[in-house]
Structure formats: C-alpha cells, structure tokens
C-alpha cells in the first residue's frame, strides 16, 4: 500500500484542494499514495474519532495553508498540532502547501518544508498547473524518504491477488478520494472572470509604473484610463517616450483582453490577445502567443500571470535599450 497522506485544509479552499488532487493522480495510479481528507467521511461516521484515527495513521501530512486555514481553530490547533507532533517524533513527514498569501512565516511551520518553491503562494503563480507540479515533486520525494512506497511488484499486484487478511477493515470499504465532478462555467462566469482580470491588470500596471518611476532616475510614467474598457501605459526617459502599450477588454475580437504595443488607445487592432479558457475545475487566460518569447497558446494564466506577461511586453524593449 502507498503512503497514507492526510490533507488538512479549510473548506473555503476546496476548489484549490480539488485542483491539487488532479495533479496527484499519477502518484495514486502508481500506488505511491492514498490521500485522505474529511470529504471521505461516510454518513454515520463520528467526526472527531474518524479524523483522530487518520491523524494517527498518516505517513505524510499536507497542510494547505491560507488565511482561512490559519483562522480555523480545528485546522490550525488540532490538525496542524498533531502533524507537528508526529513530524518531530519522526513517525510522519509534514509538508506545508502555501495556497494563498498569509503570515505562515510567523507560525511554527516556517521551520519545516514549504512548497511551492520559496513559499510563493499558488494563487500568485502565473500558471497554477506549474505551481501544483512543484508541490507534487515535493510529495514524491517525501514518499521516497518515508519508505512507505510499495515495491514495483506490489504496485502491479492485481486486486484479485490480495488475500482476505490483507483486505481493508470491514467498517470502511476501499474507495477513491477523487469525488470531484466537472464544473460547468456559464457565459456570465467567463465574462466576470475576464473583467476581473482587466481591473486587476489596471491596478497591477499602476503599481508597477509607480515603482518603476520611484526606482529609476530620469524615468516618468503615466497610466491613463481611456474609458471603462481601456487603459494605456507610457514610460518616458528624460522626457522622451520610450515605451507604451494599450490594454483593452471587450468583444471586438470575441471576449478577450487585447494588447497593442503603443499607447495610442486605438481600437480594432492588437498585437496579442488573451481569451478565457477552462478545464474541468477552473477558468484561466490563454494568449495567442504571437509576440516572440510568449508563454504559448497552451498556457493557463491566472490574473497575475496574465498581467505579468503584458508588463513584460511593455518593459522588455525598455530593458534592452
């Protein structure tokens, strides 16, 4: 049997937990892990007793850290507390997964393994799939270190070869922890995601322009809202315009956010376009990938990832000049 993985999380982060479980699929198929979380409880199970049993059985603890996790007395005090105890005893491994920005460094968790790399919250990665893949690598390494992974022969043993003595206890039938269902996204969901991304970009560009000006002598910057669906960004060096861009949201070319490599604010033309896509769990932005060095059409960009990409288009020419 694979390593027993206890997933501790706030129910407000259930969508991110679902996304993580998608990325754990290969580890499960290889028989390396058996994930458990409270959604596996059956009707009639006693909550505290069942969770306590799993806390004592786990080989690896995944703590999905967010402001809501820290605010939850049960997650933070009971589940995290037991995970720390067992890690310090050497009977289990503890891995903290930083989902959203919070003061996790001020907790005892700052002394233990944190993923993704450098503790950058998953919600802040340009592509969440890359962030979760980073987490999976840490889990795979931890499984190898615990020695709980089955041998190649055991991993290939068909269910029919399992003897009755090795079967699961009668009170709990073996079943998958994968209970997620495909999510349906309406036109209203996609439009809301698109316009939220546009407003985020306006704030992102304003903050980035302000910082660029503050850090560099001779640099002046300007952001102008042309209307509710368009803004321009301009950079001057010693009074001379050296970079500019126009970002627009709308349906001229279908629902999309477009980029034009000058600050003219012109309509009906663009150099790049970001459209809303989705998988079975989340919405994301996909670029056309026209500019050289872009992330490619298969990229699944978050609001921050898309804003960073367009900012790179603005500043790359300036950095090379």
TrEMBL record:
A GO biological process held by the record: signal transduction
TIR domain: residues covered: 1-143
Residue ranges of the region described as Disordered: 143-182
Coiled-coil segments: none
Compositionally biased tracts (Low complexity): 148-169
Source domain of life: Bacteria
Database matches in PROSITE patterns: TIR
Gene3D superfamilies in UniProt: Toll/interleukin-1 receptor homology (TIR) domain
Biased composition (Basic and acidic residues): 170-182
Protein name in UniProt: TIR domain-containing protein
Lineage: Bacteria, Pseudomonadati, Pseudomonadota, Alphaproteobacteria, Rhodobacterales
């Amino acid at each position: 049997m694979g390593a027993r993985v206890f997933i501790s999380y706030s129910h407000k982060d259930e969508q991110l937990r679902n996304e993580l479980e998608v990325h754990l699929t290969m580890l499960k198929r290889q028989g390396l892990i058996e994930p458990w979380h409270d959604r596996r409880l059956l009707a009639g199970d006693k909550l505290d007793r069942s969770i306590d049993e799993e806390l004592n059985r786990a080989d690896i603890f995944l703590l999905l850290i967010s402001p809501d996790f820290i605010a939850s007395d049960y997650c933070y005090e009971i589940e995290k507390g037991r995970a720390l105890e067992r890690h310090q005893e050497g009977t289990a491994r503890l891995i903290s997964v930083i989902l959203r920005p919070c003061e996790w460094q001020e907790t005892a968790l700052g002394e233990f393994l944190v993923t993704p790399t450098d503790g950058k919250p998953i919600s802040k990665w340009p592509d969440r799939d890359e962030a979760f893949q980073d987490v999976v690598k840490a889990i795979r390494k931890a499984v190898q270190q615990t020695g709980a992974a089955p041998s190649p022969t055991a991993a290939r043993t068909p269910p029919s070869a399992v003897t009755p003595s090795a079967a699961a206890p009668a009170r709990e039938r073996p079943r998958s922890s994968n209970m997620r269902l495909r999510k349906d996204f309406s036109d209203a969901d996609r439009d809301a995601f698109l316009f939220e991304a546009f407003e985020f970009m306006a704030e992102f560009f304003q903050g980035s322009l302000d910082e660029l000006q503050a850090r560099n002598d001779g640099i002046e910057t300007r952001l102008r809202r042309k209307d509710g669906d368009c803004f321009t960004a301009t950079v001057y060096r010693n009074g001379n315009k050296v970079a500019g861009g126009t970002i627009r949201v709308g349906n001229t070319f279908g629902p999309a956010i477009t980029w034009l490599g000058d600050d003219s604010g012109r309509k009906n033309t663009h150099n790049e376009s970001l459209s809303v896509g989705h998988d079975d769990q989340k919405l994301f932005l996909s670029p056309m990938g026209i500019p050289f060095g872009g992330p490619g059409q298969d990229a699944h960009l978050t609001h921050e990832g898309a804003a960073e990409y367009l900012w790179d288009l603005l500043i790359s020419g300036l950095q090379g000049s």
